Amino acid sequence: MGKSALVRPLVIISFVICISLLHYLTPLHLPYLHDIFQRLYYLPIILAALWYGFRGGLLCSIVVSVSYAPHLLFQWGGHLTMEMEKYLEILLYNVVGSVTGLLSQRECERTVELQKTALGLEESFRKLQCQSERIIVIEEQLRRAEKLSMLGEMAAVLAHEIRNPLGSIRGTAEILKDDYSPGDPKYEFIEIQIKETERLNRVVEDFLRMARTQPADMLPCLVQEELETIVTLLANDARERKIKLVLQPPCVPIIIEANGEKLRQAFLNIIINALQAMPSGGNVLITTTVFQAELCEIQFRDTGPGIPSGTLGRIFEPFFTTKPDGTGLGLAITRKIIESHGGTMLVKSEVERGTTVTVRLPIQLQLTEETFEGEDTRY
Ligand SMILES: Nc1ncnc2c1ncn2[C@@H]1O[C@H](COP(=O)(O)OP(=O)(O)OP(=O)(O)O)[C@@H](O)[C@H]1O
Ligand SMILES: [Mg+2]
């Protein structure tokens, strides 16, 4: 119970008792004081009406009338004609109590109505804000999709034009290489030529893979299993770079609907980026958790040099790279794969502290086997 719920009735009752006592104890030869006390009764009546509405005002005026009546009848004699003014005052107590109560009750009701309307408006405003934020995000996605589809068309043409001559260049270089022995400067040049041709070929392949809209081959996949495959594949690389690669299992096995091959490619790109960014002695930690009951959240946390804020906004752009031999397509492809699985991808980074890539994918099924192995896998 609130403090005011107790204090208010006490204040009203005290007022009525005090004023009544003043009436009963003040001698009758001081009528001007009685006149003042008579008016003082309005104070508790109006307070009751303001605090408790119509019923409160009326009840208080009745209590006041009942307390005042014996004083009028027995001390003043109670002659109707002589004490008419006092009888009228009693009537007025009741009129003032009920009318003030009624008015204050209406005012309260109106305030409640207004508060409700304000709350409703606030809620609508919040919804509107959420919707406009979503529209901005969708617009951005559409713009990106448009850019990528244009790139896709260009890639098809480019691939056609570049791939075949590349094959011939590489073939002829291989033939020429046979004419020189290792150690010969020309042999080295031809090696470089072959290597660069291979790199160019890789760019074309990557570009094509990104552009091609392959038919979805979605099957239930255990997230942990897909991650394990990639981590095992990269374990050697990590060991050579003296980087600790740790894969933490989720508390419960999580199944998502995915194209396993594409998903593995996405994970591979993210982990390779982390390994490439890191000096020896660094750590890469991969965790899987359940986010908001229906999403699986996979985080790839590295202790690398981080990404400067000026660069962070560009890392998903096709061909953006800071590496001498990078194609700059890794993250663009990865994001496309994640989004084609109905997921989202977020990169947070702090310079000199590391980078965290967060991938969220819709969960298809969450198993609750107690036998699920819960140990970290360290490589
Ligand atoms: N974990 C990371 N730490 C630091 N920088 C990163 C990390 N991941 C990505 N980057 C930055 O984002 C850029 C773009 O990455 P992306 O994978 O798209 O291309 P890339 O790695 O340069 O080339 P590739 O096509 O061979 O993957 C990288 O060049 C690098 O500067
Ligand atoms: Mg990369």
Please explain how this structure is put together:
The structure is a single chain. The chain is an alpha+beta fold and 379 residues long. The chain folds into three domains: 3-122, no CATH class; 135-211, Helix Hairpins (Orthogonal Bundle); 219-378, 2-Layer Sandwich (Heat Shock Protein 90), CATH 3.30.565. Helix content is 63%, strand content 13%. It has nine helices and nine strands. The strands form two sheets. Strands 6-7-5-4-2-9 form a six-stranded mixed β-sheet, covered by helices on one side. A three-stranded antiparallel β-sheet has the order 1-3-8. The longest helix has 94 residues, at 84-177. The protein is rod-shaped, with a radius of gyration of 42 Å. The mean pLDDT is 87. It binds adenosine-5'-triphosphate and magnesium ion (MG).
Short synopsis of the structure:
This protein is 63% helix and 13% strand. The protein has nine helices and nine strands.
What is the CATH class of the largest domain? Alpha Beta
Q: Give me the CATH fold name of the largest domain.
A: Heat Shock Protein 90
Number of domains: 3
User: Tally of extended strands?
Assistant: 9
Low-pLDDT parts are none
- Our count of helices gives 9
**How much of the sequence is in beta strands?**
5-15%
How are the strands ordered across the major sheet? 6-7-5-4-2-9
**Average pLDDT value?**
87
Structure class: alpha+beta
* Rg, nearest Å: 42 Å
SSE order, one letter for each helix or strand: HHHHHEHEEHEEHHEEEE
Bound molecules: adenosine-5'-triphosphate, magnesium ion
Separation, N- and C-terminal Cα atoms: 62 Å
Helix content: 55-70%
